[in-house]
Amino acid sequence: MNIHADSPRTDETALPVVHLRRPRWGDPATPGELPAAAAALVGADGTERRGVAPDDVVLAEPQLPVDARSALVEALGEHHVIDDHRSRIDHTRGYSTPDILALRSGDGTDAPDVVVTPGSHDDVLRVLEICAEHRVAVVPFTGGTSVVGGLAPDRTGFAGVVTVDLARLDELVDIDEISRTATLQAGLRGVRAEELLRAKGYTLGHFPQSYAGAGIGGYAATRSAGQSSAGYGRFDDMVEGMVLATPRGTIALGAAPKSAAGPDLRHLVLGSEGVLGIITEVTVRVHPVPDHRVFEGWHFDDFDAGAAALRALAQDGPMPTVLRLSDEMETAINLADPDGAGGTDAAGPTGGCLAVIGVEGAHDEVEARHAAVTAVLERAGGVSMGEGPGESWRTGRFRAPYLRDPLLDAGVLVETLETVTYWSRLADLKVLVTAALTDTLTAAGTAPLVMCHISHVYPAGASLYFTVVCPQTDDPIAQWAAAKTAANDAIRAAGASITHHHAVGRDHRATYHAEIGDLALDALRAVKVALDPAGVCNPGILI
Ligand SMILES: Cc1cc2nc3c(=O)[nH]c(=O)nc-3n(C[C@H](O)[C@H](O)[C@H](O)COP(=O)(O)OP(=O)(O)OC[C@H]3O[C@@H](n4cnc5c(N)ncnc54)[C@H](O)[C@@H]3O)c2cc1C
Question: What pTM did the predictor assign?
Answer without folding.
Answer: 0.95
